[in-house]
Amino acid sequence: MSIRNTLFAAAFGIASLTAAHAEGLRPIEAKSINLGGISGVAYYTVERDGFRVVATLAQGETGTPFRVVSLLTPGQRLLLSTPQPAGVIEISREGDSVLVRKPNTASN
């Protein structure tokens, strides 16, 4: 293997490790989300005007739960964030799919 091919393979491997990983979600399927000290679940339902995303979160085991509700049309996204380094989750609608991912914070 040439040095050029080795460098290309190494660069591709590093890029793969740092890329944001998106997970698809199905209607009514709950997805656990973790924003550092705040965690909970998110799900969506198909409504006439769009996909209604519901996230219920709380701080630790004893924190007061709170709910975030958003109606997403194709191409829209919802960011949930806290000041902690691990505290960003993006829920986006791409066509008829809803994706949950931790965005690459270096590009935001």
UniProtKB/TrEMBL annotation:
Residue span of the signal peptide, if any?
1-22
Keywords, in A-Z order: Signal
Name it: Uncharacterized protein
The organism of origin for this protein:
Bradyrhizobium vignae
Which taxonomic lineage does the organism of this UniProt entry have? Bacteria, Pseudomonadati, Pseudomonadota, Alphaproteobacteria, Hyphomicrobiales
